[in-house]
Amino acid sequence: MTDDRFRHLPYRPNVGAALFNRDGLVLAARRADLPNAEGAPGVWQLPQGGIDEGEDPAVAVLRELREEVGTDHATILAEHPDWLSYDLPPHLMGRALGGKYRGQRQRWFALRFLGDDSEIRLDLDPHPEFDAWKWVPLTELPTLEVGFKRETYRILAASFAAYAVPSA
Fold it and tell me: What is the pLDDT of residues 112-131, one digit of tens each?
């Protein structure tokens, strides 16, 4: 539920990438800015990021992959038909996303990774968003991520299930 003080704020336009490898597993990355203490699993999510003004979402998703995981060696398989939105949790309202947005409005893509694992590089950005990554079954996404994105990941697990299979 959104704090009434922040209802006037817009949603940030955003893209997200469900990047599938040849085995039908999806790339999940652990956020570097949240506690990843020993014994704690950390917060895992799919790569995502803002859409620049006037930028086509299909272009933005490949740019975000390159920026966040070091490679855009992928092809788009599908686009979720709807924009999915979420509100930030109350403790992040007015703080996260520069305090300018109440949450994000996202266009999600399923992509097939065409490279090999050595191309995934989290260390190319001087301030990396992620500090670890792994391939996981698509059905595990809702159990890995931060709570306020859980419903989005449930929708994606159903919408992109056809791509969670080994490719020829």
Answer: 999 999 999 999 888 899 99
Task: For the chain, give the secondary structure using H, E and C.
Answer: CCCHHHCCCCEEEEEEEEEECCCCCEEEEEECCCCCCCCCCCCEECCEEECCCCCCHHHHHHHHHHHHHCCCCEEEEEECCCCEEEECCHHHCCCHHHHCCCEEEEEEEEEEECCCHHHCCCCCCCCCCEEEEEEECHHHHHHHCCHHHHHHHHHHHHHCHHHCCCCC
Per-residue pLDDT of 88-109, as tens digits, reads 888 888 888 888 999 999 999 9
Characterize 61-85 residue by residue with b for buried, 16 or more Cβ atoms within 10 angstroms of its Cβ, and e for exposed.
bbbbbbebbbbbbbeebeebeeebe
Report whether 142 contacts 161 (CB < 8 A).
no
Instruction: Indicate whether 51 belongs to any domain.
Output: yes
Confidence (pTM) = 0.91
Structural domain span for residue 35: 4-162
DSSP bridge partners of 14: 50, 106
Domain CATH for 57: 3.90.79.10
